[in-house]
Amino acid sequence: MSKQPKNKNVSYDDARKLIKDDDLIGFEKELHRCREPCYEALLELRREYEKEELKTYEQVRPAVDEAVEHLSPMIIFALAGVQSQRPSFNDQRALFDDIYHLRDWSWDGRSMIRGLPDALCFLYQSLHGAVACKTGQTHVALNLARMLVVDRFNEAKPLWQRYEFTRSPETLDNNFRGSWEYLLESHTKWNWLQFFFNDEEDFKISLVTYYMLLNFNEYIFHLNQGKFSDETPLELEKVYIPLTFSLMGIDICSKAFSRLSREETALLEIMERKGVTAQEVKDSWNHWIEVCANWIEQYLQENNKRVPHHDLIKIFD
């Protein structure tokens, strides 16, 4: 509907050159230069789609796709910063705030497109986490996931505890499978992701690794909160991170598991941060895996589905 962004190769090449030259000021200026055109394009996109009085979420999907296209120069720059593994460039949490708090964006009304920023944040944090895990930077992935986000009701919560950013944004029909499938389609839909992943399989492995990491992080959170101190099962609606990654084939899940199991130091850091010992993690692990299996059965309607990372605890033997 509206003008397409500039050539993605130029965006990536620009970012790589600035990173190679260690030009952080130039890098941030380029991101700032992209911001205004992106904001204007997204506001115009909303105005155009609202004229159509969208009534189904299938009608909203093209709007999400187009919004990603408009935002892609900024996303490419940010992901290139993460990919660089350079401390001066790999902290790209600020872009999440830029996306969520879009200037002049109205949350009023009943328009199906008003929740578009949530869908964009869902996509960005997932891609960010996948690139970070692909490059062995689980700490970078977790830094964004743990970031406190102040919502439009002025409530602050960690990103990973907000359902709209990790499992099912309203604009994607509040649907677990649909949101996950939207992520999986990304690699074939946006060819600029080839800059960050070797191929589609590599992309899926990286994405699954990230969500496995978030699942372990959530387990430690609940353990710290004393949720496994008795035999009462954790209520499934209190599980924050979806286990939609369990829908992937055994090859993808096995390779993601292998990748995460090599990050023992990162997993220990998660535990130490919450004051949880390896023995405590072992003692309640089967309880957590049971919770995960029950979540998969109830929300994905998958019976007897094996939790892909059920053996992760063995790295602490």
Considering the chains and any ligands shown, give keywords for the structure.
disordered N terminus; 2 domains; mainly alpha; two-stranded antiparallel sheet; 317 residues; 2 strands
Explain this structure.
Helix content is 60%, strand content 2%. The protein has 317 residues and is mainly alpha-helical. It folds into two domains: 1-197; 200-317, no CATH class. A two-stranded antiparallel sheet has the order 1-2. β1 (148-150) and β2 form a beta hairpin. It is globular. The model is unreliable at 1-6 (pLDDT under 50).
> What does the main sheet amount to?
2 strands, antiparallel
Tally of individual domains = 2
Average pLDDT over all residues: 91
* Percent range of helical residues: 55-70%
Low-confidence stretches: 1-6
